[in-house]
Amino acid sequence: MLSMSTNNLSYNDQGGSDSAVEVGQETTPTSSSNAGAGFGLFSTNFKKNDDLKEMLESNKDSLKLDAMKRIIALIAKGKNASELFPAVVKNVASKNIELKKLVYVYLVRYAEEQQDLALLSISTFQRALKDPNQLIRASALRVLSSIRVPIIVPIMMLAIKEAASDMSPYVRKTSAHAIQKLYSLDPDQKEHLIEVIDKLLKDKSTLVAGSVVMAFEEVCPDRIDLIHKNYRKLCNLLVDVEEWGQVVIISMLTRYARTQFTSPWREDGLFDENSETAFYESDEKKTENEDEKKSYMMDPDHRLLLRNTKPLLQSRNTAVVVSVAQLYWHLAPKHEVGVITKSLVRLLRSHREVQYIVLQNIATMSIQRKGMFEPYMKSFYVRSTDATHIKSLKLEILTSLANEANISTILREFQTYVKSQDKEFAAGTIQAIGRCATNISEVTDTCLQGLVLLLSNRDETVVAESVVVIKKLLQTQPTQHSDIIKHMAKLFDNIAVPMARASILWLMGEYCERVPQIAPDVLRKVAKSFTSEEDIVKLQTVNLAAKLYLTNSKQTKLLTQYILNLGKYDQNYDIRDRTRFIRQLIVPNEKSGALGKYARRILLAPKPAPVLESTYKDRDRYQLGTLSHTINTKASGYLELSDWPAVAPDQSVRNVEVIEPVKEWAPSLGKTGKSKLSKSSDDKFYSDSGEEEGSGNSSSDDSSSSEESSSEVESDEEKSSSQSSEESDKSSSQSEKSSSESDSEQKKKTTKKPPQKKTVKPTAKDSDSDENGNVAKEACSSSAEETSSGSDSGSDSGSGSGSDADSHSGTEHKKKTKSKAKPKMEVKSTKEVSLLDLDDFTPTPVTRPKMSVLSPSLLGDLEGLSLSNISSTMQVSGPAFVPEKSHDLLHRMTGKGLSAQYQFPRQPCLYQPSMVSVQISLTNTSDRPLEQIHIGDRSPTGLNMHCFNTIECLLPEASVTVSLGIDFNDSTQAANFQLCTKEDQFSVSIQPAVGELFLPITMTEQDFRQEQGKRLGMNESSATITMAAANTTSQPISRQVATVANLGVVPSGQDNIHRFAGKTASTGAVVLVTVELRGESTALITINTEKSVMGPMLLRDLKRALAQA
Amino acid sequence: MIHSLFLVNSSGDIFLEKHWKSVVSRSVCDYFFEAQERASEPENVPPVIPTPHHYLISVLRHRIYFVAVIQSEVPPLFVIEFLHRVVDTFQDYFGVCTEAAIKDNVVVVYELLEEMLDNGFPLATESNILKELIKPPTILRTVVNTITGSTNVGEQLPTGQLSVVPWRRTGVKYTNNEAYFDVVEEIDAIIDKSGSTITAEIQGVIDACVKLTGMPDLTLSFMNPRLLDDVSFHPCVRFKRWEAERILSFIPPDGNFRLLSYHVSSQNLVAIPVYVKHNITFREGSSQGRFELTLGPKQTMGKGVEAVLVSSQLPRGVLNTNLNPTQGTYTFDPVTKLLSWDVGKINPQKLPSLKGSMSLQAGASKPDENPTINIQFKIQQSALSGLKVNRLDMYGEKYKPFKGIKYMTKAGKFQVRT
Questions:
Q1: What DSSP character marks residue A932?
Q2: Distance from CA of B305 to the nearest CA of A (A)
Q3: Alpha-carbon distance A182 to A715, whole Å?
Q4: Which of A770, A885, A968, B165 sits a CA distance of 20 to 30 A from A343?
Q5: pTM over 0.90
Q6: pLDDT computed for residue B407 by the predictor
Q7: For the residues A2-19, what does the mean pLDDT come to?
Q8: Which residues of B touch A413 (CB under 8 A)?
């Protein structure tokens, strides 16, 4: 309370002095208005604050709001209202949204000064960050991050991270803004913020793109590596980004392109980009043999940037147009820069300030490239109503554009300007004429004549400027013009402008031999007025005297001495200095020595003519369109545009993971896409870019790309499968004995239970025929069985015994299938497998009933017994938390505006336990509502799938998330179905990674060992790998494993052994994973499962995940 | 980006300040005032002023300087364009953008500025979005708000913000559905002493006022699209469609907006609709000057030339004028030496003229340049370039809208050198 009152006092003291001013202002009629209620009280400043406080503490919202409005008015006027802080901050949690907003404004303004009190409000924002309304979440984050109080940095950091993965793109955009705020508050957070930036850069929303690039530019503009992967996305999104974001993105991409592409400006380069195809082909050639670099070929990404920015020249936003113009100027081949001319000229119609900046940029451009703007010369004609700085810029440009052909037009125009009432401008015109005269030798004489005529002008500035310019011109060709010099000597009496007087004196001295009669006379005149002349004139007088002394000492000796004496006692040290120097040089005495002999040669040496240059000559060292370019000095925070690299850096870094619905093995490819693609990317290059979101490429591109990529996938698969088959060979040889045993057993077609039987999953409902597990290749999963499993959900299948053991994958036919102890395996079922193996997608309904009758019913009774005791030890647990990865199901281009993505939420499926739950989020990106979205035909036709309810209508820009249940039958074969809208049908497919087919289970270590013991030999696959350095401790290992597969962690007694357990969704087969660390970086991964197809597949994925950081 | 904003009136007072980051002392504006003092005319204040720690970027509109304070490198046009957008928004909200209007609505102004920039980076500048966030003040709403205690501030995130058509709000409803398009062309010309055209260009815009229910999808096609040499579009126009078919296809924003601005190249011959006969002389040694001016129509395609206004900046030596207009009224300001003559409509039968004498400062030498004459005029129902709208179609909604298209030609920067 005490502190409050002191606060109050001090404020009132200030306020007192303010109020005096206020009273005066308030009496003016302008402010007597509806807001005047607030203003009216200004005069009674002492009462006012108490008054406001009272209002804020009342319980009426309207009073509070009134008070806040008055406080805001105070702030707007720049008055101090900080002492109301405690009263205001109480209202931060108000329900009234306008009141709340005004409190926010206040809070942001004064939080810095009242840090302790500001902390009181933080919890409100933390609560609001969880609000279901995205606007409230966003504004809470905005305000929280705007409160510049260092103590809350950790809270801000947390909030930013959370908001960066918010559902609402608007909130994510706000978080991008918050990054910059936090960075300026605490630069130590840089590393963490870069992580968030990296994440947000991957965001596909156009709303976020501009803001995050802004944050990137502010926080880490040098981390160009973060851009690589997003480069093409940014290029493609650019047109849809809001205009301010476009400016930022374009300038960032300009810098990026200068570091990544080679120069398109090589003079000898052949610019044969006539057809896209030729261009693409040749590019391939280039990458094949790098040495052949004779002709320049533009990187397709470089071309992509140019192509996608060009439409923006038509933007209504002048800043966007100029930023595209500078991009073309700095990046495009010389012959393409011309496209920007028209747009720039168009901007000249805009506001005065816009004209100023645009003209500056044109001035710089026109020096280097006259041809660009010459056709538009008349657009730069000066109007009498233009502001002075606009006029001089136009003059500058006209001068640069002048050439032999148009000089007469320009000079005629200049004649009008010289007569302008704006004398500053007239003087500028004379300089411009001088420049034209030196640049174009044909008109030098004409210009000189014209300028001499101007010498008789009545206006002194004009005459003076003419003298200066004539002096420069004469210097270039002094021989013929002694009469002009004489004329100027006559003018000397009338001209008072120092620069002009100095110029005349200099001319006299320099050419004194041509005007021997006049020069001494001029010296005489100036000697009289020497003391009252300006410094510059005095210096030239001394010079003239010296020169005349050397050439005509008879007449001028006395005059010279007089001037030198005057100069000796001048107030200005420069003049005293010069005088002393000249005296020593020209007057021979004993001290002068050798230098005196050369005095003549020193003073009367032929001097090179000055070059009249544009002041914009050197501006091109700054990037066009920047602040630095405008002020011609380096502004703080200016980022240099680097020179083109001699050799382009690896272009494959920009390749992005391919997400293709048609592809097999999509998820595993996704994980490894980076490394793999970069190895062999060159030929696949175009397909990548074709698949990018929003790319203008047609669907034909897409399909071709998918062909390419799928072939690529296959080869990869072969590679890995051969690898794994080697491994399984190994393991199989270990279990040779048992397998031979089982072989014989199998023939007997016995139903004897093998020891593994006990491992059957707890849920009796878990139906499913074991045959599924037998299917080796994922592509062959039998639809026939699927339906059967659907029907006999009650029967429990012995999936534990169900795994046959071909070591599968592409080469499995050659491999000898070794089934380990599959006593209950019927001959029929094996036959079935091979049948399905051959023709994948032809389900044979005839065989179906047989199977469903035979296998499950037989097994059901037998296994029911063992269920109960196992269920207590092995329980399905919740999934480990891993970042959810969503995959494209339907691209918005192919879906005519409907886009769909799917992800595996890793929750047990609600509809049927044997199903894997899939979440699909549907978004309508078109501009019309989509009606009746539902699932149509599926293939294989028997696919057991729980569809979502038909969505009646999806409004534009709305999105909805639905969940599906799909029984994949423990295979990674894609589920194909049709997504239908009222009008269209789109074929889509969901391709599960093997790891998604599991459910995690928990068990004790002891149980784990026990279960493991039952799954040795054929059911075990293992591999020794070299782990990435980052993965050698338990946490990363668990994380990596969890990312790959939905498995639960089993507590382990040993530090170096990590165990994970799960069961397959359809058949409930147990899967046990052991990672045993051996030495520094090697580890042995062992997988025990009856699903001998899934084992090696999982092994492969795990190997890959653990091997990379 | 933009650190702070100061609003400075013509007498050099800061009447509003807003900071988006830490507070910048208003003393930073001293550098601006210095530049203002140095400039002879208000327009001559340089738009970009470097100071030791900041950069000041200013625009001048409605005799108010909007001075933005910048701390580091940013494209100057970015700031300039934004400031102009701020002015446009104020105009949109308050009808006028004057010091008084801003002071009266200071809270709304503050709310707007708060929404338009976040941490100095533009957040929402689209008028449709802003109007959903903050309702424009009207008398009715002010009354209602005081009674019911409701507010000007929207509670929901504007739907446009998240959609692919951010410029249009959803749920638009009108009882009368109407769409009006104004094709307005401005002719910029410089005519020399002898009456020949030095340069002439036509700049046109299509301003629209669209009040249509729902989400209409409009297409507008021209009879002669080839005339358009260079165009810039409102973001709603589908560029690809224009490229391919020369058809404007767009989902319009709600309310008033500028659909298109275009340029008809100077290569085409431009018909100059008026001519000026002038005889302005100053005799050496005499303190009198003669002033004669006659206007007449030329190539107006049969349409009347209206709202003619002639203005001229006479030389400094002129003390006063004694002129006689045959129609309209004329004024001469002896301080600024600005002569303006409000002619009205040109009657081809009886051409308007302004004749008389000017009195000059005694003893002063005769001015070496004759004044330039600026002319403003309007021609209704015709677009000078001959641009014609072919048809306007609406898709996506079922009702029949009322459609209207108006043509007009105006003088832009039309100067006659004498």
A1: E
A2: 23
A3: 48
A4: B165
A5: no
A6: 92
A7: 39
A8: 198
